[in-house]
Amino acid sequence: MTQAAPSHPQALALESLHGSLDDPVLDAMNFLNEVVGRFPQAISFAPGRPTEGDFEPEDLARHLRTYTDYLEHTLGFSRERVRTQLFQYGRTNGIIHELIARTVANDEGIEVPPEAVVVTTGCQEAMLLLLRALFAGPDDTLLVSSPCYVGITGVARLLDIRVRPVPEGPAGPDPEAVRAAARAVRAAGGRPRAFYVVADFANPSGTRMSLPDRERLLRVSEEEDLLVLEDDPYGFFVRTGAALPTLKALDTGRRVVHLGSFAKTALPGARVGYVLADQEIVGPGGRRSLLADELSKIKSMTTVNTSAVGQAVIGGLLVESGCRLREANAEAIAYYRTNMNTLLDELERHFPAARRAELGISWNRPDGGFFAVVTVPFAADHKALEVSARHYGVLWTPMSDFHLDGGGTHQLRLSCSAQSPEVIAEGIARLAAFLTAQATGTTV
Questions:
Q1: How is the chain split among helix, strand and coil, in percent rounded to 5?
Q2: Beta partners for 375?
């Protein structure tokens, strides 16, 4: 009997898959991880990961114990109910929603009922839930401050949602530019649905909106019938001046949906984020609910619920802090302030005014956060990054990855969050050598 020749596995053509998989925006995050792995000896100013600070593995057990004690002794849960809370799927919208509501009230002056809190698997899931719920038709358009965090534009691409960039200035987005973009979308037959913004120390630009601009943006959102999707990972980390109220704290018309995360302020490995969605929804027959309830329906078909164990760790940490994370982050705030000051001081030391004018190099001076942007006289692309990593031992991120309109080609982003001041100083020395060589056409 003749044996059939073994068949070869069929390959899938990329063009037969969803179009987003061929979109460079979906490669941006993976690229950062890949390039760091390829050049492990290089000093990395690329990913915006938080410091590990004084974390110890034993801390996880302590946070868990704090949370279980809180359930038993403060809330009066029986041992069986505690077991169910931690070992089973649990409530779709989360089990630490009351603690989160207390924390944002203490830290930000944001008053929302616990039922308006949706606990998510990182802030990235929060973006997915929101865009899926809010964008109902092909003409619905998301406005984004540009340059923009690739997480939100990537989700929009996955969901086939139209995106229109709003150019960002030195002080963040201009509310009148938001208005103009909304009207341009409407004039073209579309519906401007929401505007995504990081008002405090944006990723990637480090810009910060002034208080008057925040107030003007809320007026524009009312007049143009826009929701504002406020992402706030970095607001605690002020370098100069005082903290400003979030857009949600200023919001009196429920125009702002607030996205938060504990990745930067607590424990990134827990992968716990949240949405404050207190907008009222009116359904058939006058049925009323909160936007949070509608997000729950989508979450039940994506992640089902956020890890109860991850929530318990964060819950314990919140209890230990008295639901006052800003105070608990005092050391981290000082650490990031020192790092940003070191970064800016070292750039100044290597490129004093006359030298940077001669080379055509400049940078912004963010008032806080993790990121600064350097403008250079050459194409700061992936090819240049390869040279920087291989021959100079320093990594950064091309700003063009964050632009939807072809901008940022001569800019690079530096993240100073994960390195010590000593490593930052050495890294900037290496970067200065690379920038000088590229600007003067010197071969390696």
A1: 50, 15, 35
A2: 362, 411
| DSSP 8-state symbol, 215 | H
Q: Which two tokens stand for residue 157?
A: 């691409």
How, if at all, do strands 172-173 and 288-290 pair? unpaired
How large a percentage of the chain has pLDDT more than 90? 85
Please state, in angstroms and as integers, the Cα–Cα distance from residue 22 to each residue in 15, 47, 404, following that order: 8, 22, 15
d(CA 243, CA 232): 12
- pLDDT (tens digit, 9 = 90+) per residue, 137-192? 999 999 999 999 999 999 999 999 999 999 999 999 999 999 999 999 999 999 99
Residue 227 phi, psi (nearest 5): -90, 150
Give the mean model confidence (pLDDT) for residues 313-336. Answer: 97
* 234 in Cβ contact with 203 (< 8 Å): yes
For residue 199, give the H/E element and its range: none
- d(CA 90, CA 93) in angstroms, rounded, equals 9
Tell if the pTM clears 0.85, that is, is over it: yes
Helix, strand, or coil (residue 322): coil
Return d(Cα 313, Cα 409) in angstroms, integer. Answer: 42
pLDDT digit string (tens) for 8-23?
677 888 888 888 887 7
Provide the greatest CA pair distance for the chain: 85
Cis peptide bond upstream of 204, omega within 30 = yes
CA dist 71 and 217 (Å) reads: 41
Q: Which residues have CB under 8 Å from 243's CB, separation 6+?
A: 235, 236, 326
Asked if pLDDT for residue 1 goes beyond 60, the answer is no
Would you state the pLDDT for residue 52? 79
